[in-house]
Amino acid sequence: MNDSRKTILAVGAHAGDMEVSCGAVLAKHARLGDSVIMLHLTLGEGGNPSLSPGTYGKQKRREALAIGEIIGASVVFGPYADGMVPDDEEVRRYVADIIRQVKPSHLITHWRQSIHKDHARTHSIVNDAVLLASLEGVVTQHPRHRGVRSIAYAENWEDQEGFTPYLYVDCSDDFERWREWVVTYQFIKGGISSFDYLDYYSALARIRGALVGKRYAVAFDIDPFEKKSVHDALH
How do beta strands 35-42 and 150-154 pair? Predict the structure, then answer.
C-alpha cells in the first residue's frame, strides 16, 4: 500500500473551471498515481449564446467526461443550474457528503472574491463543507471525514481581486499535454467567447514558471490564516 498516495478533490462552479485553471496539476497528480476527482456544481450550460442551456449542457457534460477519461480522473456533476448556485445549508451538506464519500486529502476550489457569484459562492460552500464533513453531529449518507490536509485556491481570471500567488506547482512535464486535451471544451478551443482562454492560461503558466525557475507552473493561493511557518530557528 502506498501511504503517500493523495486524493485530490477539485470543486468548480462550472464544468471547465478547474480544468482550465489548474488542469495540468490535476493531470500531473493522476499521472503520479494519485486519485483525482472533479466536482462540477453546474455544467455552465448558460455560457453559449448560440445554444439553449439544455443543448449546451449536454455538450459540456460530454466534454467533461471525455477529459476525465483522458487524464484518469473521476467526474461528478452537481444538481445546480448555471448562475444559480445556492448559498444555503443544503448545498453545503451536499458538498460535505461528497467530501465524506471520496475522502480527499487535498481540496482545490475558487478564490473567495470573484466577478462571478457562482465562483464566490463555491469558495464559501467548500470551506464550510470541509468543516461540516468533519463533524460527527452532522448526519449525511456517509460517515465523517477529517482527513483534509489543505485547501488551495486556483488562479482564475475572474477571481483576481485579492488573489496572491503563494503556492507554485511545477507542471512542465504535463503542460503540452494539457494544451492538447483542454481544448476538448469548445469554450476553450474558441468560437464561443471572445476571451482567449488557451492563450491566457498558457501565458500565465509560463509567467508563473519563470518566477520560480520552472518552464511552466500553476499558482494557488491559500487562506491567509494558513500563511505561517513555524521553526525552531532561522534556516
Answer: unpaired
pLDDT tens figures, 112-131: 999 999 999 999 999 999 99
The answer to the question of residue 208 being in a domain is: yes
pTM for this model (two decimals): 0.95
Q: Looking at residue 18, which CATH number applies to its domain? A: 3.40.50.10320
22-50: per-residue pLDDT in tens? 999 999 999 999 999 999 999 999 999 99
